[in-house]
Amino acid sequence: MIRKLCPADFDSILRVILDAAQAYRGMIPDDRWKEPYMSADELNGELDADVQFYGWFEEDSLIGVMGIQPVKDTTLIRHSYVLHDYQRRGIGGLLLKHLLSLAKTTDVLVGTWEDVAGAIHFYKQHGFTSVSRRETNLLLRKYWHIPERQIATSVVLKLNRQSSPACG
After folding, report:
1. Which residues span the domain enclosing 70?
2. Contacts of 28 (CB under 8 A, 6+ apart)
3. Model pLDDT, residue 32
4. What is the model's pLDDT at position 163?
5. Residues 75 and 111 sit within 8 Å (Cβ to Cβ)
6. 150: which residues sit within 8 A by CB, 6+ positions away?
7. Total domains, the chain
8. What does pTM read for this prediction?
9. 52 found inside a domain
10. Longest Cα pair distance anywhere in the chain, in angstroms?
11. In a domain, 167, yes or no
12. Domain assignment present for 15
């Protein structure tokens, strides 16, 4: 079951992110990896920046999270994580489909680490296409607040909902 997450879910959101982010260890640049991968302060910052999280629950336990954030003239999909033991069961796809139904813009963007092939493959399976390095750099600077080093090691994928149906 999917539901909008609220402040009472904060600890559960952070637990899912920290568990699932372990899959990135060794894939993202060593100088970008840290423990914990996301701190409570960082999560609070994302909530303060209007990232709205939705979650997949099984037996009242939060299993997966995904955020949506309207920024300027586009919509960002942010922080997509599913507990390690529940990955590859379609939960991420269900969350993404739900968030795409909420997006109010034609273009939807997602950024991820360039060496995390599984994440890139996931978004491509759901209709997103990679953009050029030049466009990636422009989009990351326009819509995200991340360091230059992260820009250099990330990619952006785009879904244009007028020309690409949302797959699920």
Report:
1. 2-160
2. 113, 115, 116, 153
3. 87
4. 55
5. no
6. 32, 140
7. 1
8. 0.91
9. yes
10. 45
11. no
12. yes
